[in-house]
Design goal:
Elements (H helix, E strand, L loop, with lengths): L6 H18 L10 H25 L27 H17 L4 H28 L1 H9 L5
Helix pairs in contact: 1-3, 1-4, 2-3, 3-4, 4-5
Length: 150
């Protein structure tokens, strides 16, 4: 199952589960002043964190496709990659958090940790193995310096 499901599909499934959970469990709904604004800021922050790395990968002419990490031609460690090894996934998680805040569903307490677990175990760790093989000590040094998520 590792690296078999595109991360964007996993993100979409998690988003759908958040919405369905809110509809099926309206008792678990929360509302607070500024909720919509906080949700928008969180989701926009996710976009701001997740989109620039795509451009950076393209400018370095390396693959953006996480399904085939063996096609990586360049190790990107600058910009946001100084703080997170996986800003694209971090961005997706923040967009999900923004959605969860917007709909006010407590199902986020299950869906968001599930998304993080899934991405870490079935996407990121296999990617890390392959990148270690491709970039060797350079990637291992980078991995030792920079956290997986934040």
């Amino acid at each position: 199952m590792q690296l078999k499901v595109p991360p964007v599909f996993v993100f979409l499934v998690a988003a759908v589960l958040l919405v369905i959970g809110a509809m099926l469990l309206p008792v678990g709904a929360i509302a607070f002043p500024g909720q919509t604004l906080l949700a928008a800021i969180t989701a926009l922050t996710g976009l701001g964190i997740g989109v620039p790395p795509v451009r950076k990968f393209r400018s370095r002419q390396t693959t953006v496709n996480p399904m085939n990490p063996e096609n990586a031609t360049s190790l990107v460690t600058s910009g946001i990659y100084r703080f997170s090894r996986n800003p694209m996934y971090l961005g997706l998680m923040l967009i999900l958090l923004g959605l969860a805040l917007y709909i006010g569903s407590l199902t986020a307490l299950v869906i968001l940790p599930g998304f993080i677990w899934y991405m870490t175990e079935l996407q990121i760790k296999p990617e890390e193995e392959r990148l270690s093989e491709i970039f060797g000590i350079d990637y291992l040094d980078y991995r030792a310096r920079v956290r997986r998520w934040i």
